[in-house]
């Protein structure tokens, strides 16, 4: 509550300053006249609001003070969007944003390798259509047309007091209409000290209870992964785009290792515990993309992708008497995966003067093979198939733009060993209306729907032991769940003030959630299609230019109320969350300060909250070099955790670590000739390979 009040005051002060500044400085700055095919646009120095997106055009100062795509995005300062370069995060109200480069889904690492000079505009899509298959928000970097040239980029961002850092390098070579690109990145987190505060109360069917309090004795966390990529693109402007890429993702270690001391309410002797879980593995991915333009503004796009995952997931849980050291519980789970995925998608796009038709079809196949080494090598096979079809039509009528579409998804699960499985068809209606009374205001109404298929872990019926008497068993009878979202949003744009007011209403009537039940002396966690989650959220995201060309501040304040119903429960959650940031640029220096108060969310019978993070950075660019320094968590304490409200197991967990880490940043960009953009990929076939998860507390 203290953080919420502080955040409310800060954002109120920001909004008040914004209004005062906008009134006191009503002059109109230089504007950019933008011509977009088949779109009605407004003139603005930074943003063009369209029916289905907001297009941000980087200012000269934003480009000059950036050495990569993440820094450029941070310097653009899109309202409601939080860019944390140090942690490699791009979020909207605490939720991840789907990132694309020239239309193709990409990663944060690929955004880092973008040269700021090549970014023509950044498209912010916070009401994605049916093409995006349920994404909450999409950020699309549009890069300039290809010419000759090349570039080499490299950056290192190590912490001073811990084994933590981000490193990447990228090289691009152009030859006529062809471009070769090679890159690699490493995210290092090794041996970071952590502590877990945990207490729980078990209530048995006869009404008796047992409380266990865990006192932290320390722990370590590892989260190190890397990637190598090789890409080739051939671009014949306005006619053909070919893009082929091969990547290899390597998760070296993702490990949580805790030590604790358990005290029990029944007077039993204290227990020393060790709880360790994690995973590691390798994922090669091959994708090929072809885009062909025809006469009369017609486009056909085909994308293929395949991936293969081989790795392992493990969980070790040991309890011993604190005094004598006698073994009480010894749980070891080791799952080896050999999983494959294939995806293909084809879209047809037709543009007229005031309308657009988009239609597509896609197919995704997952073939999962899991070996339970702790159960004598028992095998589990899952076959998963998805087919998706959609059509969407956009039409402008004066100041109003209407979009309507319908998608249909077929989902099939089959389990070889048990012969169980399920098949289902689900519809995805979508509608949006955009009204622009003048150049400074825009009103949007959007209704969207999407489906969520159960994961491999949720459907795997092989029992997994968690601790002395807790087990997890998947439910192969789960059905694909549907979600529906209604958004009302008002955008305003003035010379020194811009932002958004919004209301979101969400429901998932058959959400897939965990449930707990006693079976003898075992407390079993399984999964069900619940009676649904509903929430209502209100938010405001102002941004003000306090000193033109120098100082900008903004943030988001959000309130959410939600209800969750499932097997034997009805729960409510109310939450305030938000973020605030300020940026000062002058004489080649950029000073940025950020604070985020993460939202707490209700899912099943658990309320969980994310990372409350603060970051301060300063950067300076000189010729091809970039230098920076900063600190993660200069104020506040890191706290990530959850609270279970289940009648059989009421618990609360806090994970804490010393995140007060100073870091330095050094980057170098070498360019010659003029840069070629990556292939303008409009769609992306989904071949995300599934993975097993070893159960943990």
Write structural notes for this entry.
The protein is globular. It has a 22-stranded antiparallel beta barrel. Strands 1-2-8-9-6-7 form a 6-stranded mixed beta sheet. A 4-stranded mixed beta sheet has the order 24-25-29-28, with no helix packed on it. The model is unreliable at 1-45 and 675-680 (pLDDT under 50). With 697 residues, it is mostly beta strands. The protein is built from 5 helices and 40 strands. Strand 20 (378-397) and strand 21 (400-415) form a beta hairpin. Helix content is 6%, strand content 65%. The longest helix has 23 residues, at 2-24.
Could you give a quick summary of the protein structure above?
By secondary structure, the protein is mainly beta.
Record the SSE blueprint:
Layout: H1 2-24, E1 47-49, E2 54-56, H2 60-64, H3 69-76, E3 81-84, E4 89-92, E5 95-96, E6 98-101, E7 104-105, H4 108-112, E8 119-125, E9 138-143, E10 149-158, E11 163-175, E12 178-190, E13 192-203, E14 209-236, E15 240-264, E16 271-294, E17 298-321, E18 327-351, E19 355-372, E20 378-397, E21 400-415, E22 421-438, E23 441-452, H5 456-459, E24 464-465, E25 470-472, E26 481-493, E27 497-508, E28 512-519, E29 522-529, E30 532-547, E31 551-566, E32 569-586, E33 589-597, E34 600-603, E35 606-609, E36 613-622, E37 625-632, E38 640-645, E39 649-657, E40 661-673
Parallel strand pairs: 6-9, 25-29
Antiparallel strand pairs: 1-2, 2-8, 3-4, 4-5, 6-7, 8-9, 10-11, 10-40, 11-12, 12-14, 13-14, 13-39, 14-15, 15-16, 16-17, 17-18, 18-19, 19-20, 20-21, 21-22, 22-23, 23-26, 24-25, 26-27, 27-30, 28-29, 30-31, 31-32, 32-33, 33-36, 34-35, 35-38, 36-37, 37-40, 38-39
């Amino acid at each position: 509550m203290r953080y919420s009040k502080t955040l409310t005051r800060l954002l109120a002060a920001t909004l008040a300053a914004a209004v005062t500044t906008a009134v006191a400085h009503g002059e109109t700055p230089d504007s950019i006249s933008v011509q977009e095919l088949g779109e009605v646009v407004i003139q603005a120095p930074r943003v063009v609001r369209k029916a289905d997106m907001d297009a941000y055009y980087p200012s000269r100062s934003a480009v000059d003070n950036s050495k990569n795509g993440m820094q450029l995005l941070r310097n653009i300062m899109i309202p409601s969007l939080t860019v944390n370069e140090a942690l490699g995060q791009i979020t909207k109200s605490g939720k991840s944003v789907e990132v694309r480069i020239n239309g193709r889904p990409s990663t944060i690492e690929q955004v880092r390798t973008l040269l700021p000079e090549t970014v023509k505009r950044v498209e912010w899509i916070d009401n994605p259509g049916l093409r995006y298959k349920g994404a909450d928000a999409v950020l699309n970097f549009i890069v300039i047309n290809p010419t000759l040239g090349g570039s080499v980029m490299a950056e290192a961002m190590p912490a001073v007091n811990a084994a933590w850092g981000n490193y990447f390098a990228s090289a691009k070579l152009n030859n006529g209409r062809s471009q070769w690109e090679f890159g690699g990145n490493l995210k290092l987190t090794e041996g970071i000290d952590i502590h877990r505060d945990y207490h729980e109360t078990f209530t048995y069917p006869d009404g008796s209870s047992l409380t266990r309090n865990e006192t932290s004795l320390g722990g370590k966390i590892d989260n190190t992964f890397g990637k190598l990529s090789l890409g080739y693109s051939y671009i014949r402007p306005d006619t053909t785009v070919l893009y082929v890429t091969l990547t290899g993702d390597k998760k070296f270690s993702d490990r949580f290792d805790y030590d604790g001391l358990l005290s029990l309410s029944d007077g039993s002797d204290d227990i020393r515990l060790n709880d360790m879980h994690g995973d590691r593995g390798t994922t090669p991915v091959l994708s090929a993309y072809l885009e062909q333009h025809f006469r009369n503004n017609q486009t056909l796009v085909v994308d293929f992708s395949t991936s293969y995952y081989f790795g392992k997931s493990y969980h070790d849980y040991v309890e011993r008497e604190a005094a004598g050291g006698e073994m009480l519980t010894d749980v070891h789970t080791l799952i080896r995966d050999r999983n494959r995925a294939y995806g293909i998608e084809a879209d047809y796009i037709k543009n007229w003067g005031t309308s657009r038709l988009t239609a597509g079809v896609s197919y995704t196949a997952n073939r999962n093979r899991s070996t339970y080494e702790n159960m004598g090598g028992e095998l589990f096979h899952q076959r998963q198939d998805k087919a998706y079809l959609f059509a969407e039509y956009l039409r402008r009528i004066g100041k109003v733009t209407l979009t309507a579409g319908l998608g249909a998804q077929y989902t099939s699960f089959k389990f070889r060993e048990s012969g169980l499985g399920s098949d289902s068809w689900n519809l995805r209606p979508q509608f949006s209306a955009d009204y622009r009374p003048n150049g400074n205001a825009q009103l949007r109404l959007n209704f969207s729907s999407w489906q969520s298929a159960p994961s491999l872990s949720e459907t795997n019926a092989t029992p997994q032991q968690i601790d002395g008497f807790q087990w997890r068993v998947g439910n192969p009878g789960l059905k694909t769940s549907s979600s529906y979202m209604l958004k009302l949003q008002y955008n305003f744009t003035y010379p020194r003030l811009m932002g958004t007011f919004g209301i979101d209403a969400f429901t998932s009537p058959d959400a897939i959630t965990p449930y707990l039940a006693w079976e003898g002396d075992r407390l079993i966690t399984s999964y069900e299609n619940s009676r649904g989650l509903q929430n209502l959220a209100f938010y405001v995201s102002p941004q003000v230019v306090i000193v033109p060309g120098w100082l900008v501040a903004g943030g988001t304040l959000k309130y959410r109320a939600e209800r969750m119903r499932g097997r034997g429960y009805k729960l409510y959650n109310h939450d305030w969350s938000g973020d605030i940031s300020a940026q000062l640029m002058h004489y080649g220096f950029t000073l940025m300060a950020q604070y985020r108060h993460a939202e707490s969310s209700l899912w099943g019978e658990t309320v969980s909250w994310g990372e409350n993070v603060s970051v301060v950075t300063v950067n300076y660019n000189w010729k091809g070099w970039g230098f920076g320094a900063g600190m993660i968590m200069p104020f506040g304490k890191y706290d990530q955790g959850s609270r279970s409200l289940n009648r059989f197991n009421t618990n609360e967990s806090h994970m804490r670590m010393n995140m007060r880490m100073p870091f330095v940043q050094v980057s170098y960009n070498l360019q010659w000739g003029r840069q070629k953009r990556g292939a303008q990929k409009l769609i992306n076939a989904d071949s995300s390979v599934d993975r097993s998860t070893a159960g943990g507390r």
